[in-house]
Design goal:
Blueprint: E1 2-11, H1 18-36, E2 39-42, E3 51-60, H2 63-81, E4 84-92
Antiparallel strand pairs: 1-3, 1-4, 2-3
Length: 93
């Protein structure tokens, strides 16, 4: 079994208030968790209104399967939320 971890830093376009940010973050977490069957957590302290950091993790028998899922997660978030991925880091353990 291989464990994969994906760290994403995302710039939230169109977010004006903390309430807007919370709504977008909750939606991303819920939809990604449900659609891709991965664990999701928000990793930042909330000090920056337009930037959020996520951590995703999953387990599979092959590393290539994890890499594919992480690519699909990145595409899904960008296509459905109109955000920009500032940084992406993938690790396989």
């Amino acid at each position: 079994m291989i464990v994969g971890v994906l760290f994403l830093s995302i710039f939230l376009n169109g977010v004006v208030t903390i309430k807007d940010k919370r709504q977008v973050v909750k939606s991303i977490k819920d939809r990604v968790r449900h659609r891709f069957n991965v664990s999701v957590t928000e990793l930042d302290d909330g000090r920056k209104l337009k930037i959020v950091h996520f951590g995703f993790s999953t387990v599979a028998n092959a590393g290539i399967d994890i890499i594919r899922v992480f690519g699909k997660i990145e595409d899904f978030i960008v296509e459905n939320y109109g955000v920009e991925i500032i940084q992406s880091e993938r690790k396989l353990v």
